[in-house]
């Protein structure tokens, strides 16, 4: 065999290697590229989002972003956010993302790569209300004037006549440490996720709001539906519905920290038509009535004594469900544990909706409450009593139940159900909540999956897996 001299062989190999590498570089579409930031950056290298977004824009997962002040997506403009993107809210300017009527937010993460809106503060120093929150504004029906001012000075005018209006997609999205008061006026806050007149063309699915400084979710009118919502360690109410909201929600969870509640009295559900609720005389004048339908909701405060006051918050817990001011909210197949009150039906107009069967409740378990069922807000005309509420709640075929603290163990909740940073909500195999769901009346609607179980979870399907975070305080983003 003819042998090449060693130096010649090395030279030939080097030439061949160089040629091969050159060929790969010319044709490798995945080769690393240097990309300039898509805008001005702060001292942490985050691209600053400021003012109005007036042309279609995409936020990329390989960048981080900082919301300064109100960042508004204008009418006719689409803001797209890639899976895995991190958006931080600035505390000093109370940064918030506001998608105005006619704007679109396409925030579609994945189970393994969710989109995260969070505090700009360092791990360990984050808190309730570090920034504003996410606000969607649509053209669906509301029961107030279409020129009504939005809370917190966000702007004037929301809602319309398009029940199927589309404000975009929020799917596999987390919103953390938002919900901030914007002035000293009452009702002048942004919530974790605020929805003004948002239509049913909008997709809301797999969303977690954690450590909101006000409500975790609030709907002001509109028709948007939702599935798989999580409210974690909020300050005020978990799910607040007002101004004629008529959408449907299935699979919703709240896990509360018993040490934190609001001065107004924190509730799982708070529902109003408006204040004072009547008269309701026509479209945009009290009608449509607030009439959402919830199914498969689990709201947990504590397995211990219900907290009548809080050590670290500004107020106390009140009701698992505070339904008032002519609301017509309906609730099915849901479990509420640990509020001082279970169901508070408030006001004779609300009681009239019960009597008219426009408010429906079945498959509901109220557990570990000091006062499970209460009548409130009576007037001399149409007065009703605690006993009246009990008779209605316990009606034949409804499968509603009241469970005392002493009997809480009979529900078969998970041993880690109330673990604030590493919870597990899957039911034990012997839990009576695995069966007994009721899908009659308003719950017969095709939107609802006709599952057998009550509450947000069965014994095997953990829909929280992969995308939620129950310890965002210590997450390094």
Automatic annotation (TrEMBL):
The keyword Signal applies. Residues 29-41, 262-278 have a biased composition (Polar residues). Keywords: Signal. Residues 1-22 form the signal peptide. Residues 21-44, 262-283 are annotated as: Disordered. It comes from the Bacteria. This is Cell shape-determining protein MreB. It comes from Hymenobacter defluvii.
């Amino acid at each position: 065999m003819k042998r090449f001299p060693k130096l010649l062989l090395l030279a030939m190999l080097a030439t061949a290697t160089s040629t091969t590498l050159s060929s790969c570089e010319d044709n490798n579409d995945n080769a690393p590229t240097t990309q300039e930031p898509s805008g001005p950056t702060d001292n942490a290298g985050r691209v600053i989002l400021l003012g109005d977004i007036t042309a279609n824009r995409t936020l990329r997962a390989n960048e981080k972003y900082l919301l300064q002040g109100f960042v508004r997506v204008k009418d006719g403009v689409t803001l797209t956010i890639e899976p895995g993107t991190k958006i931080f809210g600035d505390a000093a300017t109370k940064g918030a993302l506001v998608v105005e009527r006619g704007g679109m937010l396409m925030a579609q993460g994945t189970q393994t790569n969710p989109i995260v809106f969070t505090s700009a503060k360092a791990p360990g120093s984050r808190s309730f209300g570090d920034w504003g929150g996410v606000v969607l504004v649509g053209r669906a029906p509301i029961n107030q004037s279409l020129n009504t001012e939005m809370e917190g000075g966000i702007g004037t005018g929301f809602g319309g006549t398009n029940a199927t209006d589309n404000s975009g997609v929020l799917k596999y999205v987390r919103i953390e440490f938002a919900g901030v008061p914007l002035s000293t006026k009452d009702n002048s806050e942004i919530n974790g996720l605020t929805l003004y007149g948002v239509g049913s063309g909008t997709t809301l699915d797999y969303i977690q709001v954690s450590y909101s400084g006000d409500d975790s979710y609030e709907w002001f009118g509109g028709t948007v539906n939702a599935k798989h919502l999580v409210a974690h360690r909020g300050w005020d109410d978990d799910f607040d519905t007002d101004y004629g909201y008529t959408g449907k929600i299935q699979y919703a969870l709240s896990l509360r920290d018993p040490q934190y509640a609001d001065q107004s009295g924190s509730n799982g559900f708070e529902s109003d038509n408006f204040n004072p609720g009547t008269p309701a005389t026509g479209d945009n004048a009290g009608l449509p009535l607030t009439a959402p339908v919830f199914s498969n909701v689990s709201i947990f405060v504590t397995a211990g004594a219900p907290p009548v006051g809080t050590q670290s918050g500004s107020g106390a817990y009140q009701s698992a469900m505070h339904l008032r001011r002519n609301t017509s909210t309906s609730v099915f197949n849901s479990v509420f544990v640990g509020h001082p009150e279970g169901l508070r039906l408030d006001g004779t107009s609300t009681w009239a909706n019960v009597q008219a069967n426009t408010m429906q409740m079945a498959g509901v378990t109220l557990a570990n409450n000091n006062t499970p069922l209460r009548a409130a807000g009576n007037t001399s005309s149409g007065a009703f009593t605690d006993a009246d509420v009990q008779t209605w709640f316990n009606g034949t075929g409804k499968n509603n139940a009241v469970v005392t603290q002493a009997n809480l163990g009979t529900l078969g909740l998970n041993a880690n159900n109330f673990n604030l940073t590493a919870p597990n909500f899957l039911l034990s195999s012997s839990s009576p909540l695995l069966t007994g769901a009721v899908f009659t009346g308003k719950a017969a609607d095709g939107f609802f999956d006709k599952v057998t179980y009550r509450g947000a979870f069965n014994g095997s399907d953990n829909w929280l897996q992969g995308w939620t975070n129950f310890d965002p305080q210590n997450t390094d983003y």
